[in-house]
Amino acid sequence: MRQLLLGRRGLAAAGMGLLAPPAVRAQGNWPERPVRLVVAYAPGGGTDLTTRAMAEGLTARLGQTFVVENRAGANGIVGSEAVARSAPDGYTFVTVTSTHVMNRHMVPNLPFDPMADFTPIALMARYPLVLMANTDAPFKDIPSLIAYAKTRPKGEIAQATSDAQSSYAANQFAKAAGIDLTEVPYRGSGAYLGDLTGGHLKLAWGSTATAMPLLTGGKVKVIAVTSPERSGFLPDSPTLVECGLPECTFIGWVGIFGPAKLPVEIARRFNRACAEVSATPSMQEKFRTMASDPAPMDLEALAATLRDDDARWAKAAKEGLLPRQ
Questions:
Q1: What is the pTM of this model?
Q2: Taking a C-beta distance cutoff of 8 angstroms, is the pair 173, 248 a contact?
Q3: From the record, what ranges are coiled-coil (predicted)?
Q4: Which of 85, 108, 260, 291 is the most exposed place for a label (fewest CB within 10 A)?
């Protein structure tokens, strides 16, 4: 009788499993079919290249194809909204930069909450920004730039930016240094390169990946980086902290997010897989090619990083350091 009763309980338990939502049933074997990674920006950029490199490694490690799809528009909002509205079943994710959290403090009527409407999965890469100067400019480093700017008419010196991150770095630098620089926003770093190398611009902000190819031409010099320590890619370039501006630090990132309410078991497995792929020699070489650093961390550390970012951008918005969209 006891055996029969246990059998009935087992059948009941099995029945409950069959009635469970698909996302719950699939957790133990995730992924069981192709996974879609939506890049919220145009093809060919740093986020796209990083995502495709990671997708290749994840496909090999997890045995299912990770398909990359670009859905660009509105500073990452179009692709992010599509994923926020998708089912939390572990088969649709978005890859974005740190502007994902910044948007909360820049964009009126944002159609989602970057903190509440997503499940953070992993940071794939991190990178500082750099301040580049034309080599013919009448200054060669941060001290001489500050000294020169203080002798010039207000607004005479322009600094080029290409996105929200570089706009923040530019505004923060000018405020901390106590100088007046005119921000000139361009549509992407490629748009200002000709003006910078040609001498029409004296200053421009960009990523390490943007700066590195320019250095061999002899027309551009990196005069500072925004990381707390010197970049391994630019070991001869000082940090803004070294230059006496400790508040001028910024590290951007490229991350993966799923929709809210994603089962934590899937999030943890995905997080671990990203860390494992990041440690492989082939992915390490791709990081070097893209002039970025791997950024493995567990879900708890990632959540803390995002909370810190959110607090930082809230403060920056109050101080008028973020562009309004």
A1: 0.86
A2: yes
A3: none
A4: 108
